[in-house]
Design brief:
Strand content of chain A: under 5%
Shape of chain B: globular
Chains: A mainly alpha (64), B mainly alpha (250), C mainly alpha (256)
Oligomer: heterotrimer
Number of helices of chain A: 2
Number of domains of chain B: 1
Number of strands of chain A: 0
Number of domains of chain A: 1
Shape of chain A: rod-shaped
CATH topology of chain B: Four Helix Bundle (Hemerythrin (Met), subunit A)
Strand content of chain B: under 5%
Distance between the termini of chain B: 36 Å
Structural class of chain B: mainly alpha
Radius of gyration of chain A: 29 Å
CATH class of chain B: Mainly Alpha
Chain lengths: 64, 250, 256
């Protein structure tokens, strides 16, 4: 097992390379999931509380 | 048999398709990556000249290929945007750019860490790496232009033009960088001189490339779903989607 | 009998009348005349506008000279090092000078609405845009190429290298104007302005830089620069034919 991680003395290079790739892919997946969640939350909010319509024009209360 | 090629070209019909394909391909990518890593890190024999450092090619080569392919696919969707004026093709191009940039970055980083033990230097200005760096700049340019233009439809068309201009330039850039490199460096450093392929090494690269393809398609389809929801807000069909999801996103 | 004097708007009126008049008076084939007339008209107009602000042109040229002068201060005045650096420095500074002048191509016309008028003109937009790019090169690239022998001798470049340098700049700077115009048109009205333009355009400039500076390097190494200059010429021909369509498309997108 230790031999596997040592990679014949090249451990630093091999694991820095694979580690970066793993982190980068993990970050991308996390970003996409966050983006989907944000998009759905914004959609839900716009559906549940629709933007207020413009208030009706105020009329005088009693016509003279 | 008449095929309606435009059947899935509206965001409404494409959305559920994107979802199911994304999950299926994501699972497949994980499987293939697992198999590929086992082959690459365990089964494939140690190289005589480069030792175990050569194992980086199992991540470097697929990433470099994907960086190139994704740009071509992005250019294809951009041509469709300009030709057919469809929204979805522009959304696909928009979804592809970040993943392409990421693949280019992975290719550059892993290439640097392969170069150091093998040829003594992290960055050697060789033709392929320099072209990949310029490709990364082209990706970042498309992403930057998208965020700099407010109107989404205008941004779609502007980025489409930029992607196509870039696509035409990529072969020219690659040719010129290779020319420049051979004149100045000679053939002392060449990233094409991968170790002579034992069958297992070749199989490992193939499996990892297939994994990279599946992952790319999966993540891009997931991202395009988010983009569709972002941009189609106000369209009625989206609201039924929320009812389906019952308050969560899968 | 009174006749109301014809109001000639300096821009819009001239737009509609001048190319058509040129076509009628020339009496040649209408389609060809309209394209050449449009190019000529746009070139003449932009050239005149640029000459009105000679100060701005002078400043751009001065920028080029200052940048070229700064490099030896950062490295070393020894002739061998300067001769090695020279072609690269002179070419990279030409790139930067081209970048600086690109906003001038479309931005001021876009801001005051003239660009919209130009796009509405019955003359082909591709031709009008080509005329603008030609005027841009005449006021930016050509002066830089003309200054090159003088600045090159500052870098201890010998005469054959100076000749190649000038030739490479004469061939390469039009390509810079053409490719830069694509970026300038795409970033019209976008946030980030000049720096975004640089990010978009500099990667596209890379091959021109490689072959342009490489030509002078080849002469310094004693080899022929013909392949480099031929490739630059081929690139220029390709760009002349293809790029104006992309620029016209980008202008229409910006005006929507």
């Amino acid at each position: 097992m230790a031999q596997f991680f040592a990679m014949g003395g090249y451990a630093w290079y091999v694991w820095m390379a694979y580690g970066f790739a793993a982190v980068a892919i993990g970050v991308e997946i996390a970003f996409v999931r966050a983006r989907r969640k944000r998009a759905f939350d914004a959609l839900r909010m716009s559906v549940e509380s629709p933007p207020p319509r413009t208030p009706p024009i105020m009329r005088a209360e009693s016509p003279r | 048999m008449l095929i309606n090629w435009f059947r899935f070209s509206s965001p409404v019909s494409f959305y559920p398709l994107a979802g199911s394909w994304s999950y299926a391909l994501g699972a497949l990518a994980a499987l293939l990556a697992g198999a590929g890593l086992v082959v690459g890190l365990w089964i494939a024999p140690t190289d005589a000249t480069q030792g175990d450092a050569y194992r980086i090619i199992f991540i470097h080569v697929p990433a470099a290929w994907m960086a190139m392919f994704i740009y071509l696919v992005m250019a294809g969707w951009s041509a469709a945007t300009l030709g057919f004026n469809t929204r979805l093709s522009a959304m696909m191009a928009q979804a592809l750019a970040p993943t392409g940039a990421l693949m280019a970055a992975i290719a550059l980083w892993t290439g640097a860490f392969w170069g150091r033990p093998t040829w003594g230097t992290y960055w050697a200005w060789d033709a392929r790496m320099t072209s990949t760096l310029i490709l990364l700049f082209l990706y970042l340019g498309v992403i930057a232009l998208r965020s700099a233009i407010e109107d989404p439809r205008r941004a779609d068309r502007a980025c489409a033009v930029l992607a196509l201009v870039g696509a035409v330039n990529v072969p020219i850039i690659y040719f010129s960088v290779q020319w420049w490199n051979t004149l100045h460096q000679g053939s002392s450093i060449s990233f094409t001189a991968a170790p002579k392929m034992a069958m297992t090494m070749f199989a490992g690269i193939l499996i990892m490339t297939a994994a990279a393809w599946c992952y790319t398609i999966a993540i891009v389809l997931a991202r395009v779903q988010a983009i569709i929801v972002e941009r189609e807000r106000g369209a009625g069909w989206l609201e039924s989607l929320i009812d389906l999801r019952a308050g969560g996103n899968a | 009998m009174s006749r109301a004097p014809r109001q000639r708007n300096a821009n819009a009126g001239a737009l509609r009348d001048a190319p058509a008049e040129a076509a009628r008076s020339a009496g040649v084939d209408d389609a060809r005349a309209s394209v050449l007339g449009a190019i000529g008209w746009a070139l003449a107009r932009d050239f005149r506008v640029a000459l009105r602000s000679k100060g701005e042109l002078g400043v751009q040229l001065l920028f080029y000279v200052i940048v070229v002068t700064l490099f030896p201060l950062a490295t070393s005045p020894s002739p061998e090092i300067l001769a090695t650096l020279g072609p690269g420095v002179l070419w990279t500074s030409a790139l930067l000078a081209s970048l600086l002048s690109l906003p001038r191509l479309f931005a001021s016309d876009y801001d005051d609405g003239t660009l919209e008028q130009i796009a509405l003109s019955p003359r082909p937009l591709v031709a009008l845009v080509s005329g603008k790019m030609a005027a841009h090169w005449l006021t930016t690239g050509l002066p830089v190429a003309a200054m090159a022998p003088l600045l090159g001798s500052q870098y201890a470049l010998e005469t054959p290298m100076l000749g190649t340098l000038t030739a490479s700049l004469l061939l390469g700077t039009p390509i810079l104007s053409l490719l830069g115009a694509v970026g300038a048109a795409l970033t019209l009205g976008a946030r980030g302005g000049g720096t975004l333009l640089a990010l978009l355009v500099l990667p596209l400039y890379a091959p021109v830089l490689i072959f342009g500076a490489g030509a002078v390097d080849a002469v310094r190494a004693g080899v022929s620069a013909t392949p480099h200059l031929s490739l630059l010429a081929a690139g220029l021909l390709l760009a002349l034919v293809a790029v104006p369509f992309a620029v016209a498309a980008a202008v229409r997108i910006a005006l929507d």
